[in-house]
Write a structure and sequence with these properties.
Layout: E1 4-7, E2 14-18, E3 23-27, H1 30-36, E4 41-46, E5 50-55, E6 60-64, E7 71-75, E8 81-82, E9 91-94, E10 108-110
Parallel strand pairs: 3-10
Antiparallel strand pairs: 1-2, 2-5, 3-4, 4-9, 6-7, 7-8
């Protein structure tokens, strides 16, 4: 049985991960802000876990920003972020594409000097269980 399962938003791509993650980083660099469209990337990393594509592997596209090593894999149908192995020997899994529960807390915040100006005030914003009425 897989340790983790995941999919894209449209469900065309599904996968399993066998093994555990070594770290869970929240990266605030400008590259992660651009590729997620939000304040930070949230990615799990493993040097030993195995990624098995169940469906849609042929629909997974990858983009590497030249001269940076910053890579994003995504579903070409819906654009959802997906796992990649572009860094030699390292599996990178965006936390949001997992359907299984992540029980480990984030290991650390990275590139905090690049945080979005509004991020420090997130706790001040009202919270709703769904869309506000």
């Amino acid at each position: 049985m897989a340790d983790h399962v995941g999919s894209c938003l449209c469900g065309a791509v599904t996968f399993e991960v066998y093994g555990e993650f070594d770290s869970f980083y929240l990266c605030h660099c400008h590259h992660c802000q651009k590729d997620t469209g939000t304040a930070h990337g949230a990615n799990l990393f493993s040097r030993t876990a195995a990624l098995i594509w169940l469906t849609g592997e042929d629909g997974v596209m990858s983009f590497t920003l030249p001269s940076t090593g910053h890579t994003k894999s995504f579903c070409q149908r819906c654009g959802s972020a997906l796992p990649n192995t572009q860094m030699a020997g390292l599996l990178v899994v965006p936390a949001g594409c997992l359907d299984s529960v992540i029980t480990a807390p984030p290991t650390a915040h990275l590139f905090c000097a690049s945080k979005a100006a509004w991020e420090d005030r997130l706790a001040e914003a009202p919270q709703y269980d769904g869309l506000p009425k």
